[in-house]
């Protein structure tokens, strides 16, 4: 729980544990503070924009798309993203099929590519229900799927990791890869949303 | 689809119909409870990986076990499933969790 | 039901999935970083596997599993793993916890400590 701004709160048991574990490991030469800081910085540098870049490339380059669907990890590396140990399967949304990803057992997610997963992905309601009543859960996220669309749920319960390749929205002909990538949110890569052209023209980020 | 170097030769191929063992052992298990006992079709052979059940116990999990992606019909898995009858759920099943 | 582990929740009833989330606190990111280093994915020596972390998380009492935040489960399980691996001992941990607490982590301690203890 975050204390109100300007008010200190004593560390709770878990924060105490983190400090204690870290100090013991550093004292024993198991890790260094620099290595911890480096790992934190490396994780901060990973995010859904990397997946979005891969999607935008696939939308504009059919040969890349084929490679992406064949081996997600190699396709990530092709764009310069280092993803040690990641075995990525990319699953394609089509007019007939929609994909959604979960890890019912814990929170497995392609972290080495996309960074840390959102809180809700790790929550009991999502993990329990999206396998059993996926259409209802997607509707709660604001995504209504027509009954004729086949829904594929992927439970990443072992060594593979998953990312959804959403469909390219209509009305984006001639868009640059960078502009296309802006449409692809983290939720689109998990499958609880689809890319949408914003109603109001967005001011371009610098 | 290229297949990674196998520690053991996989018994099953894409398209094979298999059933997940119905067992409730102890320890660290990566075969979710909800899928045990159900039948599905092999969608791909993922490769061979050290057994996570053993890795969790500080053992090396070798020889690596073949791992398969298996596709199940949602209406087969959940009584009263409401949705498109073509809806599926796909998981990774280790060879030793597949009924002989 | 003992046959089904508490964490193995696929298909169990639950409430609405809410799009909650908080920006991760630094202590949480440090827990994540320590785990990455200890499993060797950053190139250092592999001291444990992620499977051991998961096993220890799964072993948490169900009520605690539900009440604890994600990285609270991680920090407890990571520390348990280090004890199981013999990297640290329970006694070392006890002394360190005491030491850190005595140092006074916050300028506003709730209780005044008696001197000499």
Structure description:
- Chain A is an alpha/beta fold.
- Chain A is built from ten helices and four strands.
- In chain A, the strands form two sheets. Chain A has a two-stranded parallel ribbon. In chain A, strands 2-3 form a two-stranded parallel ribbon.
- Chain A is globular, with a radius of gyration of 20 Å.
- The two termini of chain A are 34 Å apart.
- Chain B is mainly beta.
- Chain B is built from two helices and four strands, in the order ββαβαβ.
- Chain B has a four-stranded antiparallel β-sheet.
- Chain C is globular and about 40 Å long.
- Residues 107-117 of chain C have low confidence and may be disordered.
- Chain C has helices at residues 26-38, 50-58, 62-67, 70-84, 90-103.
- Chains in contact: A-B, A-C, B-C.
- At the A-C interface, α1, α2 and α7 of A face α1, α4 and α5 of C.
Instruction: Report on the biggest sheet of chain A.
Output: 2 strands, parallel
- Quickly count the helices of chain A: 10
CATH topology descriptor of the largest domain in chain A? Nitrile Hydratase, Chain A
CATH top level class name of the largest domain in chain A? Alpha Beta
What spatial order of strands do you see in the largest sheet of chain A? 1-4
Number of domains of chain A: 2
